[in-house]
């Protein structure tokens, strides 16, 4: 008896191109990094340093910052490895939205904005600390509520047992 396998549709074309976000889990760290960069971090020091309209437009500073932050959080530090990850790993591909910068661009961005990036890392640590503290408090409250419910259920069960025993 032969084993049936799921079909491997490597050459099948898809009718609609999927979003790169579809390949990353909803609770993946890369989504947190993107949300932080888009909604929480103050990137004015980096964005304000770009002047003039000559030459090719630069990559969006939010994307570049997100790429670096996710790289640091994932243990990928070198510009060459970040550039490779942006082509090979779905979490990095989601951040760069399928338009990866080369390693020189990443290196130059990091060198040019080193001081501003240091300040952003402090912001990220503060936000993570606040988030962790809030999450820890919520976890404790849930645990205490669960314990209270268990104690109440046990006391109700004990009362019912005592009433059944005294009524006999």
Which helices and strands appear, and what pairs or packs with what?
Elements: H1 29-40, H2 44-47, H3 61-74, H4 79-88, H5 90-96, H6 103-112, H7 114-166
Helix pairs in contact: 1-3, 1-5, 4-5, 4-6
Number of helices: 7
Relative strand content: under 5%
Distance, first to last CA: 64 Å
Shape: flat
* Percentage of residues assigned to helices: 55-70%
Helices and strands, in order, run as HHHHHHH
Overall pLDDT, averaged?
83
Largest sheet: none
Structural class: mainly alpha
Query: Would you report the number of β strands?
Result: 0
Low-confidence stretches: none
Gyration radius over CA: 26 Å
General description of the model:
The chain is mostly helical and 168 residues long. It has seven helices and no strands. The chain has helices spanning 29-40, 44-47, 61-74, 79-88, 90-96, 103-112, 114-166. Helix 1 (29-40) packs parallel to helix 5 and helix 4 (79-88) crosses helix 6 (103-112). It is flat and about 90 Å long. The mean pLDDT is 83.
Brief overview, please?
65% of the residues lie in helices and 0% in strands.
Keyword list:
flat; 7 helices; 168 residues; 65% helix; mainly alpha
């Amino acid at each position: 008896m032969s084993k049936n396998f799921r079909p491997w549709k490597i050459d099948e074309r898809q009718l609609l191109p999927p979003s790169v976000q579809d390949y990353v889990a909803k609770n993946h760290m890369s989504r947190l990094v993107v949300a932080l960069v888009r909604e929480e971090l103050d990137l004015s020091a980096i964005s304000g340093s770009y002047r003039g309209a000559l030459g090719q437009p630069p990559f969006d500073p939010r994307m570049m910052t997100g790429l670096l932050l996710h790289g640091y959080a994932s243990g990928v530090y070198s510009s060459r490895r970040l550039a490779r990850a942006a082509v090979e790993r779905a979490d990095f591909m989601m951040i760069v939205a399928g338009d990866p910068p080369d390693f020189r661009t990443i290196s130059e961005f990091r060198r040019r904005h080193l001081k501003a990036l240091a300040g952003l890392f402090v912001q990220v640590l503060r936000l993570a600390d606040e988030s962790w503290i809030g999450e820890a408090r919520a976890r404790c409250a849930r645990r205490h509520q669960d314990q209270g419910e268990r104690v109440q259920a046990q006391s109700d069960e004990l009362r019912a047992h005592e009433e059944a025993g005294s009524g006999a």
